[in-house]
Amino acid sequence: MHCPFCRHPDSRVIDSRTSDDGLSIRRRRQCPECGGRFSTIETASLNVIKRSGVIEPFSREKVMSGVRKACQGRPVTDADLAVLAQKVEEAVRQTGSSQIDTNEIGLAILGPLRELDEVAFLRFASVYQAFDSLEDFESSIEQLRADRERRLHAVPGE
Known about the structure:
Elements: E1 12-18, E2 24-30, E3 37-43, E4 47-49, E5 55-57, H1 60-70, H2 78-93, E6 99-101, H3 102-116, H4 118-128, H5 134-153
Helix pairs in contact: 1-2, 1-4, 2-3, 3-4
């Protein structure tokens, strides 16, 4: 790590701490040449492989933007979308891969969106999963109803 003060090509780590969200590490460094101290923040890069083959950095904002369209007119706040985007990023990072394609991100969105708002889930799923007919909607709605019934009749602790 180059010193930002004298551009010496090396520095010594004095202290390391994990961020509150656990996704980055803050390091306090000191330059052996000039003695200047500075901080760095390190994160693992996560790239998205788009359908066109283009690779770009993962963006929570893009997740929120895509889901926001499905949530129009629904009782979903920006804070709800931020939490959903964080859940999606955490799920994607847990795969351990530094590159993930857009299809996998879409799959990671479906679960948290379903918990957040079923109507928004259907809207998003209809585009993402390319529903072609009313039967596709009916099948998805039946699955939502069956899952809701299972949750209502689930015994706590099992």
